[in-house]
Amino acid sequence: MEKIKMSTPLVEMDGDEMTRILWKIIKDELIIPFVDLKTEYYDLGLVEREKTKDQVTIDSANATKKYGVAVKCATITPNKQRVEEYNLSTMWKSPNGTIRSILDGTVFRAPIIIDTIKPVVKNWKKPITIARHAYGDVYKDTEIRVEKPGKAELIYTDVDGNVTKNTIYDFECAGVLQGLYNKDSSIESFAHSCFKFAIDTKQDLWFSTKDTISKKYDQTFKLKFQEIYEKCYKEEFEKLGITYFYTLIDDAVARVIRSEGGYIWALKNYDGDVMSDMVSTAFGSLAMMTSVLVSPDGKYEFEAAHGTVTRHYYKYLKGEETSTNPIATIFAWSGALKKRAEFDKLDDLYNFGVKLEEASIKTLLDGYMTKDLVNLVSEGVKVKSLNSKEFILKIRENLEKSLA
Ligand code: NAP
Ligand code: MG
Predict the structure, then answer these.
(1) d(Cα 386, Cα 322) in Å, to the nearest integer?
(2) Whole-prediction pTM value?
(3) Which pLDDT score, from 0 to 100, does residue 393 have?
(4) Atom number of ligand 1 nearest to Cα 73
(5) CATH assignment of 1-112+297-353, among 3.40.50.1100, 3.10.310.70, 3.40.50.1820, 3.40.718.10
(6) How far apart are CA 126 and CA 112, in angstroms?
């Protein structure tokens, strides 16, 4: 069989530990035999980040800006223990954080759903995609613990020296204080990414904040979204028959639980952090969550939502058998190939991405799966637990059949 052609390279970001092992098997068994794969390769493994003083991460993000589509393997975010383990010269920043800030993007997380694994919320039939504004608010806050009575004030001095001053509270006792901020430019980028992704995936977009209580801060988010929607996206939304819907966060939570899914839910930073954990847990498994970073000018970086699965990697190093779920990483590849195909108008490549996903789902529905999924499957379904390599080879069998 002739291999499927590509015209523009994908930006390939390799990673660490167990997912690095899976990365190679996925490429060798599920991509390279079928696709004349073109990639510009960046090794974001911690060893190479140390060697290049993290320049490789910056280069990979700039390449994504240039080419428009990247696929990324999970990577270690160093902490103190990793500094010792890898003998690092410094505690390098999270690669995802670095890439996100260069692309100025928003992360969209969505579960991969199969019929034999029922979400905890019975009426959820379609994926709920969470879009989290990953900038500012409580993650960049300034806090003071006050120990005795006194006056807390919010003071802003602009570049011309004009001062705005508001009393926060006249403390009659000890207490706590917190200062938050966000920037119009960041909120606007967030809004553009959300509207673009909704159009791209033809799904409704929900957005929720607490603007009734936060009359300037959250209100700014609400107004910016509304303004950008009307000005740039309303027409396209109407043409596609999708809607933009704003509601208070409490109302949104109730509606999400009663819904059947199938939309994007955009949230401020803290709300997105909390709600994405709730939604992903209720859908079943972190190993079945995809993640895509979308920049406001429409560049895409695909990855799995989970980490490098360190616990499995240490077992692997000891020569023990591991059953790590490769599905989210496979979908990162299929997502990136499909997006590349869309940009370059390559139907065969697009169909390959679809067939790779179908073969993966069929394998799961046939009862073949990795260990992590076995206990999540509905009662009465016959399952066979496989190690990672065996599972990927089963997917390959199905893929070969469907491509033949
Ligand atoms: P993790 O790698 O997501 O794994 C946490 C646990 O979740 C695993 O021990 C495993 O549970 C289960 N799990 C996750 N993915 C799985 C899969 N594909 N198949 C089967 N089980 C899976 O999170 P972590 O252990 O907290 O972090 C490990 C490293 O990943 C850290 O260095 C962190 O910095 C990094 N990280 C990277 C990213 C990223 O690059 N996007 C994201 C998060 C974390 P059991 O042990 O019970 O089997
Ligand atoms: Mg969290």
Answers:
(1) 9
(2) 0.91
(3) 98
(4) 40
(5) 3.40.718.10
(6) 9
